Amino acid sequence: MTTFERRQRLLALLQEQPGVRVSEIAAGLRVSQGTIRNDLDALAIEGRLVRVRGGARLVEQSLPHSPSFAARSNINANAKQIIARWASELVEDGDSILLDASSTVYCMARYLHNRRRLRVFTNGIEVARALAQNPSNEVVLLGGVLNTDGSSVTELISERLLQDLHIKTAFVSCSGFTPETGLTEVHLSEAQLKARAIHSVEKVIALIDSSKFGKIDLTPFAAIDQIAHLFTDHDLSSEWAARLKKTSLTFTICNEDTISTFTPTTLETRHYRIGFANLSEQLPFAADVRRGLERAAEEAGNIDLLLADNRLDAVAALDIADRFIEQSLDLIIEYQIDAQANSRIMDRFRRAGIPVIAVDIPIVGAIFFGVDNYQAGRMAGEALGKWISINWNGAIDRLIILEEPRAGELPAARLHGQIDGLKAVVGEIPVEKRLVLNSGNTTEISEIQMTDALKRLPDEHRLAVISFNDDAAMGALSAARKLDRETDVIIVGQGADRCVREELLQPGSRIIGSTAYFPEQYGERLIALALKILRGEPVPPAVYMDHIFVHAVPETAYEQDR
User: Fold this and answer.
1) CATH 1.10.10.10 fits 3-58, yes or no
2) Which of 181, 253, 314, 381 has the fewest Cβ atoms nearer than 10 Å?
């Protein structure tokens, strides 16, 4: 089975057997439990299910009210889902967006379930219903005449409303597309509304599945030069891809776990093809790195970016390395957790003559980019020590260390730094007071490990927790909350990703802070480094990010004292 087929079967199993566990699903589908956990995490991010201890439960999602719209949504459903998933990554919390009433954009709306404070303007009834379920969103249904199947509004009455708005991005689809004609619609009123709406936005993103290429319907509503970015699926023929490359259009071909983005080429500028194998699309930090890289590559204007997901799995990373080599890329940016597999990956790239940048986890023979691990850790350890000095009189019952042994010695230095920073403030922590747990680099595994530890330590109420990353910190916090022992723990993180930054805004959070690595800034610096390498300019063997320690808000006792 493909990944998509396996996940569809997994959802069907959860529908048939709501209490089925990970081990039973893995046995039934004849894959590892780790693969099933990755699938469940991915489906949870998509909003299809909610993770629970040992398994998951389905999320009840309302179906379209309109039978004809539901039928339209099922046409090329796999391609629409894949396009929608990747396109939804362009939407950030607080964005103002305009969405049309197409079935592809409706799919995308369902991937926005975890975005907050969106201001959405749409003529799609089903789109509006999907996004209005989140109370933090403001959804404006553009006024007009309801069409016959009840799925959209056309013949815009409040046209003046659009003229007075400043909207960041419009996401639209069409019924037919060619580079010469642009985006076309079968319904005249729908095309007229889209044409007017496009004039009110900063940029237009087109979501067009491959079946619509080469079709010309009744009337056009957007020329190709009005489109900032086009997303399509992997079934697009090589002939159509070649035609698109000759245009001024930036476009992305989406697969289940990989995407390839192509920018316009010019004779004056050397064009490069760069591959990025990401740590895991399920980790917020890694997803932010990938988003920043996409933005930087597009701004550079001469980079085709091919993206893949290593899924925290060495076997997957080796397979991706082989696929990248087959595509004769100019440079690889490798983000891979298993230090033991990195030597084999690097050997393949070296034999292919492809230069490599290693992100956060070093690879011998590659340029290193990322964290100054020891200093980043020491910042967190010192902050933890000062909190303990003020609030627990400098004493703890246990130091819990959430490590990630697969990452190797250099990333482990962030834990050594935390221990040294803590020791510099409160003194030596005896070995018998230290408890080392394997975080698995995920919130889920960290929560399981921390839950077990808390049950084994019922009489200890001053537990200091240091973490390999923010996912481990969040897992520890979740375990303490579920066992009603939140006040027994005090935690510091590493990374200051968006999930932890949101937690730090909660009054009295037991995560008192996290060292910021600024994943959203990785992309700009990675692309600049890659271009230097490709131009043959000298570069240092290691390039480090600058770090600061981000404290919880409102201020902790330590901050008030300082």
Assistant:
1) yes
2) 181
